[in-house]
Amino acid sequence: MLGSMQAYHVRPRATLRPTTCASSKLCIPHIRSYSRTYQLRSPSERVLTKASTEDSTAAPAPAPPVETASASASASASTSGAADSTPEVVFYEGPGSNAELVLSLVLLPTLFYAPLSIASIGRRLWISFKFTNKRLVINNTSPLFKRTIEIAYKNIKEVRTGPRGFGLWGDMVVFLRDGSRIELTGLDKYKEIEEHINRCIYTL
């Protein structure tokens, strides 16, 4: 009787151990495989995974305001439109200096000054200047070099003048923003024209 009871008590222990071991063996590889796959992930992948999770849960950022850019663009467009709508006023219009022409005719018989006199007469006959509040215009009506040059004041970088004929007339050099320059010879009121161009350049 005792032997049968001992056998009865031993058998459950023997049967319970394999099941416990089997279940523990089944659980241990599962835990190891999970920890191993977690360890195989690099720190950068962990950060990316965390960041993607936070981005998905976070609320979307508000879009930048567009009204400010559109308002500034409309303001600049209105300013340029107002500048273009300003009526063009002529400050000076006419040919070269009369004093230069008279002096050239007086010195024409001399061989030394003859080429300069002919050039001065040609400028007086065919070249005219026009200065407005927006641009300067050089009109050449010569049959050989017929052309018209228009320069807006916003394209002018600097203006320099020099007196000629004891200050009775002067020459002007206009420096453009693209690096080129234009020379204007034999101008009346060259100082007033220079001041007018500088005033228009700084006010545009």
Automatic annotation (TrEMBL):
> InterPro entries, per this entry?
YdbS-like_PH
User: Low complexity bias located where?
Assistant: 54-82
The organism sits in which domain of life? Eukaryota
Q: Output the Pfam families linked to this UniProt entry.
A: bPH_2 (PF03703)
Record region (Disordered): 45-82
- Give the YdbS-like PH domain ranges: 126-197
Task: Output the PANTHER family linked to this UniProt entry.
Answer: NAD(P)-LINKED OXIDOREDUCTASE SUPERFAMILY PROTEIN (PTHR35688)
Q: What is this protein called?
A: YdbS-like PH domain-containing protein
Q: Source species, please?
A: Pleodorina starrii
